[in-house]
From TrEMBL:
NCBIfam families noted in UniProt: FeS_nifS, PRK02948.1
Species annotation: Methanoculleus palmolei
Gene that encodes the chain: nifS
Name of protein: Cysteine desulfurase IscS
Protein family (similarity comment): Belongs to the class-V pyridoxal-phosphate-dependent aminotransferase family. NifS/IscS subfamily.
Pathway assignment: Cofactor biosynthesis; iron-sulfur cluster biosynthesis
Keyword Iron: yes
Length: 394
């Protein structure tokens, strides 16, 4: 054990991040004195409208887009739903086939499943043992009925980064739009819609120091896509509803801050990530790294410990002041093994024994030391109690 003061070591930044104080400060006036509805025609409303447009410019600048190609949403889930259902609806006459990967977030997978119930055909591309999609497999899956290819930039559970540029090029060779869920990538990697060739890109504020319930969908000009919400003329008639002005302001400020020092920030997290991975693999037997060893988010550690249950690791870590996750936050309440880990070929019992630690700007080397000092003891104790552990001399 350790003599350090008890305090929270938060290592679940893929689930959510604390809102940065500068972001909260930027948002506050838009709840109170600048409370106007951006659609109204007087000064207090104009201030709100200008703030929304300024935030749009900030989001656009962060991803290399034009401001008129950025549409605010209630988060990553809505952006994913809109991209997929919107393109499907606008292209129904052209075809009825969508290509995605087997390891997408449920915001994409469940959207596709819902389209399947309406008669759409969906190909869920397999991945290799590291969670990578082979662009060649995308090419093989394309038919003359394919209207969209959607592959995430980086995975929320295992951190694997996809070859999105190569995938986008293949889609474009066949005149098919390419969507990427970049929810986990923004603030961790440089993301640029021109460099990747994305026609649609989803992002979410709370993953990079912004408020929850905020996000955006980038839509390249001339992409055929239906409106998401019917009603007023907000977001150029494509996403009706009075804008969440404070949230949008916060999103704009957060993306500006998160992308300003991205290389430096990523290098710092990468060093801590690698120390954690090495430390865990070196000190705990029967352990393997999930996800790609190199093509991986700078803040993601995901390790499978044999003979133990992820939930028991989490409870033990919680008692020691460490907040972590077994898989994605959305599935951690479910008893099903992670669809991401099983798609990578992990047997269900090993998928169940996986732990995800995701770092953020407030984590320190001291936090890494602490986790490395407590986790081997936790795993050893759980293995002693586990009926799955092979008995010595057997
Ligand atoms: C890859 C990915 N896509 C989409 C989402 C959903 O984003 P939001 O929480 O903003 O709805 C998440 C959140 O966990 C995610 O990790």
């Amino acid at each position: 054990m350790t003599d350090r003061e008890p305090r929270l070591v938060y290592m679940d930044h893929a689930a959510t991040t604390p809102t940065r104080p500068e972001v909260v400060e930027a948002m506050l006036p838009y709840f109170t004195e600048r409370f106007g509805n951006p659609s109204s025609l007087y000064a207090v409303a104009r201030e709100a409208k200008e703030a929304v447009e300024e935030a749009r410019g900030r989001v656009a600048a962060a991803i290399g887009a034009k401001p008129e190609e950025v549409f605010f949403t209630s988060g990553g889930t809505e952006a994913d739903n809109w991209a997929i259902k919107g393109v499907a609806a606008a292209n129904r006459k052209k075809g009825d086939h969508i290509i995605t990967s087997a390891i997408e977030h449920h915001a994409v997978i469940h959207t596709c499943r819902s389209l399947e119930k309406q008669g759409w055909q969906v190909t869920y591309l397999p991945v290799d043992e590291f969670g990578r999609v082979d662009p060649g497999v995308v090419e093989e899956a394309i038919t003359d009925k394919t209207v969209l290819v959607s592959v995430m930039t980086a995975n929320n559970e295992i951190g694997t980064i996809q070859p999105v540029r190569a995938i986008a090029e293949i889609a474009h060779d066949h005149k098919i739009p390419f969507h990427t869920d970049a929810v986990q990538a923004i603030g961790a990697l440089p993301v640029n819609v021109e460099a990747t060739g994305a026609d649609l890109l989803s992002l979410s504020g709370h993953k990079f120091g912004g408020p929850k319930g905020t996000g955006a969908l980038y839509i390249r000009k001339k992409t055929r896509i239906g409106a998401f919400m019917d009603g007023g003329a907000q977001e150029r008639g494509r996403r009706a509803g009075t804008e969440n002005v404070p949230g949008i302001v916060g999103l704009g400020r957060a993306i500006e801050l998160a992308t300003a020092d991205i290389e430096e920030h990523a290098a710092r997290l990468r060093a801590m990530r690698d120390r954690l991975i090495r430390g865990l693999l070196d000190t705990i037997p029967d352990t393997r790294l999930n996800g790609h060893p190199v093509e991986r988010l700078p803040n993601n550690v995901n390790v499978a410990f044999r003979y133990v249950e992820g939930e028991s690791i989490l409870l033990s870590l919680d008692a020691l002041g460490v907040a972590a996750s077994t898989g994605s936050a959305c599935t951690s309440a479910s008893l099903e093994p992670s669809h991401v880990l099983t798609a990578c070929g992990l047997p269900p019992e090993q998928a169940h024994g996986s732990l995800r630690l995701t770092l953020g700007s407030r984590n320190t080397e001291d936090d890494v030391d602490y986790v490395l000092s407590v986790l081997p003891g936790v795993i050893e104790r759980l293995r002693q109690m586990s009926p799955l552990t092979p008995k010595r001399n057997e």
